[in-house]
Amino acid sequence: KVRTAILISGRGSNMVAIAQAAQATDYPAEIVGVISNRPDAKGLERAKALGLNTDIVDHKLYDNRKAFEQALHAQLLALDPEIICCAGFMRILTPWFVSQWHGRLINIHPSLLPKYKGLNTHQRAIEAGDTHAGVSVHWVTAELDGGEVIDQRSIEILPHDTADTLAERLLPVELALYPDALEAVALQFQKQPRQ
Ligand code: GAR
């Protein structure tokens, strides 16, 4: 199985969806650890309840982004993952960190990339008059939310949708997409590990 680490900052529902999928004997990835940059992330309890190894690298304890990322990098090296999934991980990663894990880092972003990189994606889709909103799993590169899309799914924006109702209706779509996208990436790794 392909060793996979998950980075979270909050609720952890995508992390749980991945971890539950990974419990199937024929799933190609195994979860070797969950790291949160927030000590109070709800997802940490959920990860422990699933029997997963958890760690905290609290960004507030470091003087700057580089120092935080070096600590995060060290924790990841200890887990020795082949793939790292950002799952609601809300820290921007520097080119240095991304280059350390090039071709191994993936993220889920709540928009139909390349549209709406960054924050407030659903509000921006509604304000633009878009007919659909969605969610994408993509490779992480030095450009924020700019790496190649691995897979994405969409739903229709309804007349009375708000950012909150869209997020609520998209959540089950996300939770189905991320395990499927990780499965596809892990199968590629099994065939041909990236260098
Ligand atoms: C998810 O909706 C995810 O798409 C989004 O944060 C939420 C995390 O929920 N990610 C981003 O906005 C990344 N910029 P979760 O912690 O319950 O998985």
The total of beta strands comes to: 7
Mean pLDDT: 97
The gyration radius over C-alpha positions equals: 16 Å
Q: What string gives the helices and strands in order?
A: EHEHEHEHEHEEH
Bound molecules: glycinamide ribonucleotide
Helix content range: 25-40%
Number of separate helices:
6
Give the termini distance in whole angstroms.
17 Å
C-alpha geometry: globular
Strand content: 15-25%
Low-confidence stretches: none
Characterize the largest beta sheet: strand count, sense, and whether it forms a barrel.
7 strands, mixed
| Structural class by sheet pairing and helices | alpha/beta
Strand arrangement, largest sheet?
A: 3-2-1-4-5-6-7
Give an overview of the whole structure.
This protein is of the alpha/beta class and 195 residues long. The protein is built from six helices and seven strands, in the order E-H-E-H-E-H-E-H-E-H-E-E-H. Strands 3-2-1-4-5-6-7 form a seven-stranded mixed β-sheet, with helices on both faces. The longest helix is centred in the C-terminal third of the chain and has 29 residues, at 163-191. The chain is globular and about 50 Å long. The protein starts with a strand and ends with a helix. 39% of the residues are buried. The mean pLDDT is 97. Glycinamide ribonucleotide is lined by residues 8, 10-14, 43, 87-88, 108-110, 135, 174.
